[in-house]
Amino acid sequence: MTEWVPVIYGIGLDAAGRCQHYHLETDIAVLWCRRCQRYYACYRCHDTLCQHTFVASAPTDLAVMCGACRYRMTVDRYHEGQCPHCHRPFNPRCRLHDQVYFLIDEREVQSK
User: Fold this and answer.
1) pLDDT tens per residue across span 12-59
2) 44: left (phi over 0), alpha (psi -120 to 50) or beta
3) Among candidate residues 38, 33, 28, the one with its CA nearest the CA of residue 8
4) For the chain, what is the radius of gyration of the CA atoms?
5) Are 40 and 54 spatial neighbours (Cβ–Cβ below 8 Å)?
6) How far apart are CA 57 and CA 11, in angstroms?
7) Could you tell me if residue 9 is left (phi over 0), alpha (psi between -120 and 50 degrees) or otherwise beta?
8) Domain residues of the chain, as ranges?
9) Are the C-beta atoms of residues 56 and 103 closer than 8 Å to each other?
């Protein structure tokens, strides 16, 4: 039986999920839209391709996937700075967008 490998959606993607918006060597964190139930290279790709804006994930969701090895992880694991499976580093500047991708406050989670 073949193991399911999640698809990465985005614009101008390379094999590791880098897109036309974010394409540094470390831009390999792929994010889960809670509404679409899909992984996108970034919120800008998502918002261009979808009829709605990106919907942030709960802290317990497998909200991040490593584009290099396709390992899925929680926000806490992602915040360790590298993939726990293949050890490739994530771009630390991506944390600037945490409020777009992740629901941090428990009240936010309950209202979604």
Assistant:
1) 999 999 999 999 999 999 999 999 999 999 999 999 999 999 999 998
2) alpha
3) 38
4) 13
5) yes
6) 21
7) beta
8) 8-111
9) yes
